[in-house]
Amino acid sequence: GVGTVLADNPRLTCRIPDSRNPVRIVCDTHLRTPVSSYIVATAAKVPTILATCCTDAEKQVPYRKAGCEILMLPEKNKHTDLKALVTELGAKGIGSILLEGGAALNWSALQSGIVNKVQAYIAPKILGGAEAKTPVGGLGADSPDHAFHLTEPTVTRLGSDLLLESRVV
Fold first, then answer.
1. CA 103, CA 74: separation in Å to the nearest integer?
2. Which end of the chain has fewer CB atoms surrounding its CB within 10 Å, N or C?
3. Quick one: CA dihedral 100, 10, 126, 159, positive or negative?
4. Does 33 reside within a domain?
5. pTM for this model (two decimals)
6. Which of 146, 166, 167, 142 is CA-nearest to residue 155?
7. What is the rounded distance in angstroms from the CA atom of residue 43 to the CA atom of residue 116?
8. At 141, is the pLDDT very low, low, confident or very high (cuts 50, 70, 90)?
């Protein structure tokens, strides 16, 4: 989402030589993605969609000029409607998404019901503290009964890291 773009200025490109770049999709409710960001600066070479609720045509101009596709979506709970996004992407032939979101977008995706599989990478390190970032933000679950349940877990060792893959029930 736009929070990750603002915090990290990521490229969101494939780094495997001679491989095709995926379509980059940024959920940006109010079009706050900096025009100077890597995402926008490379949009003419790497397909880039900005999913937004911002109807200000003037605000959209620099993104369109840079090569971004603006995907207008309805707003839901003050954010881009993710179910509408998935429907629109499906109409464009995009049937699967690798969501590398921050805590807010991860929560919204889970809450909207668009997540069917989770891949969590676990490093042998412990971070913590009262202000520590978590992979899923939002309101969270107040009890195990209200948590998002995962099923059919598999664990793969990747060097010293672990990859946990599971389906969301």
1. 21
2. C
3. positive
4. yes
5. 0.89
6. 166
7. 28
8. confident
Residue 164: how many other CB atoms lie within 10 Å: 14
Residue type at 101?
G
- As a whole number of angstroms, the distance between CA 167 and CA 92 comes to 25
The closest of 42, 48, 50, 52 to 24, measured between CA atoms, is 48
For tokens 């995009």, the residue is: 94
The conformation of residue 86, written as its DSSP 8-state character, comes to H
Domain extent for 16: 1-99
- 63-72 CB burial, b ≥16 within 10 A, e <16: beebebebbe
Task: Say which residue the tokens 């990290």 belong to.
Answer: 8
Structure tokens that stand for 49 in this block: 């969609």
Residue 24 is encoded by which pair of tokens? 């980059």
Chosen domain end from 40, 70, 99: 99
